[in-house]
Each structure stands twice: as structure tokens, then as C-alpha cells.
Amino acid sequence: MPAARNRSRTLAHCMNTQRISAWHDGELSPPEGQELAQHMAECPACRHELDRLGGLSRWLSSAPMPEIPAAALSRLRHSLRPQRERVILRTARALTAVAAAALIACSVLLWRGMDAGAAPAQTPGEWERAAIMSTPPDPRTADEDMEVELARSILGSLSTEGGRGYE
Amino acid sequence: MPEDGNCGESDGALVRRIRHGDDSAFHQLVDRHGRRLLGLAMSLLGNAADAEDVVQETLAGAFQGIRGFRGRSSVGTWLCRILVKRIARLRRYQRIRRALSIEWVADDVSAVPSGALAETEQADIRMDVMAVLARLSEQHRTVVVLRELQGMSYSQIADVLRVPRGTVESRLFRARQRLKELLGDYLS
After folding, report:
1. Residues of chain B positioned with their CB less than 8 A from the CB of A62
2. How far does the CA of residue A75 sit from the closest CA of chain B (Å)?
3. Least C-beta-crowded within 10 Å: which of A9, B44, B82, B147?
4. How far apart are the CA of B40 and the nearest CA of chain A, in angstroms?
């Protein structure tokens, strides 16, 4: 029976060790703390654990805090001025890049606009040509018809003669 | 970390002034929290030069991100969180650098007697707090320093490390178990 009791105590100890650590730090809720306190009242192993944690904390806090040279703080304060300047410089660079991009975009648009402006100058030319082509011939007068017929016959006789002469 | 400064304007008021471009407010914040941040960095790194560098980076990072500070946690906790993250990053970098240099030494200096390094290491092991803390894992060392040396509550530590409160409790418990192992009978 004592062996069984020891085993159960060991098990309880194992289960409680983490809670003892939290209790030592004051991080258990009041009901949890009360329950653990009751357990510890009859568990020397857990009390020993709490003592060791106390010793550990005392030992750790006994170590002198590292000395912070006053010059280090001063350096920290002064290191922020260049930082501010870096931020301003970066912002200025970004703004310059945006301005340059806008300028390029405007130039491209302007160039395209000029290109598009030149096209209408050609378009009326084409339009005019098309309009002329599609315009029906003016109705001719009887005199004009006679003149055309005369011109054709002269041209016909000339071309016949010429053809012969070359042969 | 205290919620607010010990005198004068609150940290929140200083943050508002910094947002409006008042550098002197940032200097006040440095005066208020700088010493504690340096102490924490030195406890975690064990090296004054690295500590100063990392605190400087922390403050610079805080300065840049001051607009992103929503005030959900205190300024002290926020600064502490940035610092712990930067220290973790520095340690990762140092580990990689060390690993590379060890490879280089292993390749190059084959004449070093095998026992020499161990002897040097043993000679360097001092039974003081910093030396023992240095033998803890990074997670354990951080939680022990925040609790035992900085006096933070579990909730504050959880806030700094962005882990659940229960994780802080179990991590601290395991860290203490490890410390007890390392110290052995020294505590009795």
C-alpha cells in the first residue's frame, strides 16, 4: 500500500510540476492556487520543487544587470536623425520616380495625340478621292458629244497610221 | 515592460507626436525604453556590441513602422516584440555563419588536435547566469529572460512572442527544468 501511495504521489507531483511553476510566478487563478496549496501541504516533493524554483529565481535575479553605457543611449538617440533623413530621402526618391513615370506617360500620350492629329489630314484626301471616284459624270451637251466623237475618230486614224509606219 | 512611461506624456501621446514628425518625441521614447531594450538585448545576446546594433535596428524599425502601430499592445511590448524578432533573425544569421566557418575550419585545419576545442570550450564555460542562459535553446532563453530578468507576466510574454499563454507556461516550465539540470546541486 505505501508503494501505491508513493506512486500516486509521484504521478500527482509530475502533473503538478508545471502548475507549481505557474504558481511560483503568481499566474494561477485563486481556485487553482488554493487547490495546489492544499496538495502541497501534504506533498514534500512538490514543496521541494517550489523551493528549488525560488532558489532558481533568486539566483537568476542576483546576476547583475548588464551595464548600459550612457554613450550607448546617446548613440541610439543620434542614430535616429540619419534614419529620419533616410526616410525623407526614400520618399523623395519615390516621388521623383512617380513624377518621371508621369512625365513619360504624358510624353507618350502627347506623341500619340500628335500622330492621331496627322491622320485626319490624310483622311480628307482619301475621302476626297473616293468622293471624286464615286461622282457620276456630268451630263454632256450635244456639242460636247460631237467633239468627243470627232476626237476619237482623229485619234483612231492617227493610231492606225502610226502603227503601220512602225511596222 | 511598463504600459506607459513613468512621467510626463504617455507613450501613446509620444507616438502621435512622432507621427506628426516630432523627432524629440522619439528621443523621449528612446530615453524611456532604450535602457530596458539594451538590457534585454544584452541578456539575450550576451554581447554589448551586438545588443546595441540590434536595439538600434529595433528603434529604426519602430520609427519606420510607427504608422502601423495600432496601440493594441503597449509601446514597450511592441518594441520588445520587434527586438526579440530581430534577435532571432540575428541568431539565425550567426548560426549559418558559424556553420559555414566550421565547415571551412574542418576542411582547412586538420592539424588541430581533437581534444583542444573541447578543452577551450570547457575553459570558457563559466557558471554564471549569462553562461548558463547561453546554454539554453533560444526559445527557452527568451522566455526565461522575459520572465525572470524583465519581470513580465505570462500575458505580456505571450503578447511579445505572439504565442498562446499556455505555450508560455509550458515553455517556461521546460526551460526551468533544463536550468535545474544544468545547475544540478548548485541550487540546493
Report:
1. 129
2. 9
3. A9
4. 9
Please indicate whether residue A147 or residue B104 has the higher confidence score (pLDDT). Answer: A147
Grid cell digits, residue B34: 532604450
pLDDT for A21 equals 92
User: A58 or B123: whose pLDDT is higher?
Assistant: A58
The candidate with the shortest Cα–Cα distance to B75, out of B58, B90, B89, B92, is: B58
For the stretch A9-32, pLDDT in tens is: 555 565 678 889 999 999 999 999
d(CA B142, CA B139): 5
- Put simply, the chain B residues between 44 and 83 with a CB less than 8 A from any chain A CB are 48, 51-52, 55-56, 59-60, 63-64
Other CB atoms within 10 Å distance of the CB of residue B33: 26
> Where is pLDDT greater, at B156 or A118?
B156
Mean pLDDT score of chain A = 73
Give the predicted TM-score (pTM) of the model.
Answer: 0.62
Element (H, E) at B141: helix B138-144
Query: B179–A56: do the CB atoms touch at under 8 Å?
Result: yes
The grid cell for B26 is 522619439
The pLDDT value given to residue A15: 66
Looking at residue A163, what is its pLDDT? 39
Q: Which residues contact A80 (CB under 8 A, 6 or more apart)?
A: B23, B26, B27, B30, B59, B60, B63
Contact B83, B55 (CB under 8 A): yes
Taking the C-alpha atoms of residue B159 and residue B162, their distance in angstroms, rounded to an integer, is 5
Kindly write down the DSSP assignment for every residue of A130-164, as one continuous string. HHHHHSPPPPPPHHHHHHHHHHHHHHHHHHHHHHH
Pair B184, A56: CB distance under 8 Å: no
How far apart (Å, rounded) are the C-alpha atoms in residues B146 and B126?
A: 22
Query: Measured between beta carbons, which residues in chain B are less than 8 angstroms from residue A18?
Result: 169-170, 173
